[in-house]
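Hey all, quick one. A colleague (J.T.) asked me to put the C2G job into the tracker so the inputs and the structure tokens live in one place instead of scattered across chat threads. No bug as far as I know, just bookkeeping. Sequence used:
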Amino acid sequence: MKKYKRAITYGTYDLFHVGHLRLLKRIADMADELYVAVSSDEFNALKGKVCIIPFEDRAEIVKALACVKKVIREDNWEQKISDIKDNHCDLFAMGDDWEGKFDFLKEYCDVVYLPRTPGISTTDIKKNLKK
Ligand code: C2G
């Protein structure tokens, strides 16, 4: 029996890499089930991010992971509270580049920030491809 029943995390997961994978696996190790909200292309535009891989493909890759139970769409900043309530999540987890940014969710579930995997990011991959 793991500490939590259902965890949820949010992200773009563009050009899926081992930093994304390790984070999802570590969250999955804390809960019986892991739900992942993948940012839609429209929401990424709001985040000021231009995705290389379209939403449907990014979602399909994340959903295929053994440690992921369900994928939902992330369309805005405001949906986290209702997502946590509607899906009965008892854990919200993110990489620690978001440290403190979602503490308001502590009213609804536990909130943890896990260390990022150093030395890899989608931004760096894009830069290397341009060289
Ligand atoms: N991540 C990581 N290590 C890396 C790169 C990313 O642990 N080397 C983590 C991030 O901390 C994040 C997750 O992987 O928790 C997804 O990262 P992104 O796809 O960059 O997502 P982001 O743009 O941070 O979107 O509402 C929240 C946003 O949707 C988060």
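Adding what we noticed when we looked at it: The pocket of C2G is lined by residues 10-13, 19-20, 23, 39, 74, 94-95, 97, 116-117, 120-121 (CB under 6 Å). The first strand starts at residue 4 and ends at 11.
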